[in-house]
Amino acid sequence: MSSGFLRKIVLAIAVIAITLPSFFCNSPETARQIASVPEHHSDWLNVYDTSVRYVGMDVCRGCHPGIYETFIKTGMGQSFDHATRDKSAADFTPAHALVYDSILDYYYKPYWVNDTFYIKEYRLEGKDTVHKLVQRIDFVVGSGQHTNSHIFNTNGYLYQAPITFYTQKHRWDLAPGFEKGANSRFRRMIQLECISCHDGYPDFVSNSENKYRNIKTGIDCERCHGPGSLHVHARQTSVPVDTSKMPDYTIVNPRRLSTELQNNICQRCHLQGIAVLNDGKNFYDFRPGMKLSEAMNVFMPEYEGAQDKMIMASHVERMKKSNCYMQSGKMSCITCHNPHVSVKFTPRTQYLNACQGCHSGNSGQTRCTESEQARMAVNNDCITCHMPRNGSIDIPHVAVTDHFIRKRPIADTAAKKITAFLGMKCFNNDNPDAITTARGFMEFYERYTPSVALLDSAILYLGKQADDEAGLKQNRDYIRAYYLLNKFEKVTGYAANLKPESMKDAWSAYRIGEAYYQSGNPAAALPWYKRATAIWKYAMDFQNKYGTCLLALNKPQEAKPIFEFILSEDPNHVSAHTNLGYLYLQSGNSTMAYNHFMRANELDPDYEQNLINLAVWHYQNQQYDKAKRRLLHLLEKHPDNEQAKAMLADL
To answer: Most buried pick, 200, 355, 600, 625, via CB within 10 A?
Structure first.
């Protein structure tokens, strides 16, 4: 999942946003605020029947071996697999396999030990290695056509490693979203939204953020055809359906769907943007044959200018901008693509024939007006001129086919610049309701560009829907908006009318707890943190905040098992090691305190609070030079830390 979306233009957005009024989004006075009402009926029997189960690609293979053999070679079939030498497309020779983050001062070296893949992070001072951390890699993400990224599994918790191999440029570099000082090293969580598009549906622990019981390897047949148990049972117990004469309604056949529903299947993952789940829905709830808006609404920021700016998985958004799509009324992704066959093995003529199907002498559509000489120079290839390969703004070092089909793609440099942010547009629902739109603005703020104007627009939209149901939903949305604005008194004002035990949303409970805590009231924060951890037991950062609040209330005996639980689940949780070390230091167990501090330091040598704790430990053990070195290192990385300055002055 590529979380680096629009990174090359967020600074421009921030500059533009300060000149815009808070209602720069699509005008709420004129916008239609009618919620899309899904029709919970389909002729296809596996769409809405929740008793129909997923059976897995190997079951499909039993009856459809030919399709399986070609599909498994597609980008979808190759999307996710165990980290093996065969799966990796990367170059591990010394000339290529080294990445340096010049901002955070870390080197990264990928390498194999027999058949096990590792990434080593290290830091140098002169010729001395002053930090080293080695992480085993368990999964490779990506078919290798554009990239290979890397995932590791810690007791079921999935995280992304900080480097990626970019196959088109044949180079290693920081992973998308880890550049320009944003390197989260080995702590970027792989959440359900990400993995649900990059792999087959895993067995997810629902009261967590990134814990899984088991992981599939590759997107499978049922992502486009829907769950298959009904179909398998029917074929095993009844006469097969002659699909040349009639549909087999036990399983979705996308070619028999309407154009809109065909595109809804593809845009589940090829409309990468701000996905806002409907209330009560998750990323598993969409099934082929549904409208995507029944589960979620996907927003994209709209800009004036910069028509060439695109993200890698924006195929549907780009296609929907095209006159071919808007005027034909019948254009879908499978007009050109056969999802069962890799683009690497698809003959170019298949795509050109799709163009000629509309733009031929008998169709009545406009034919190519370019000169014959110019057309022959590119072998009469429509795609070369009208769908050129373009750089992706979220994934560096790649070029992909731009699905915005235009007569003359933008060539003017001035026209490529962003001149204004126009608002957020939903690309799978023409009429998202006001609350959903507000959530789109907040998601964009949190993920990509923290412009206060985005939150102003979110609050404006929240006020536009005031029916009774909206009032109940809006509480958590106002809490979120004012929390992001650091207006904690507003958050606690909403919380005053709520009871922790009645809260069903873990994030709302956590934000209320944070608002009280940051306002200097840990006693009021505690029940909200506790509620957040009751809803999401396996969200380790929520647990850590709960334990920290207990420490602030001088309840070490209650806090200690919280930190021990965190480390039993995720032994690499830096803050939990730091906090547990502090508890041991307070209780006089200097050895255990030092062990936890040093483990935290191995995991993150720049972690601010742990460096303070280590300096205290060295001081208490009369190791004054070491204490001084810890504090100097801390101030090099965190120059505004007043506590470190005061301690250094005492030394």
So the answer is: 600
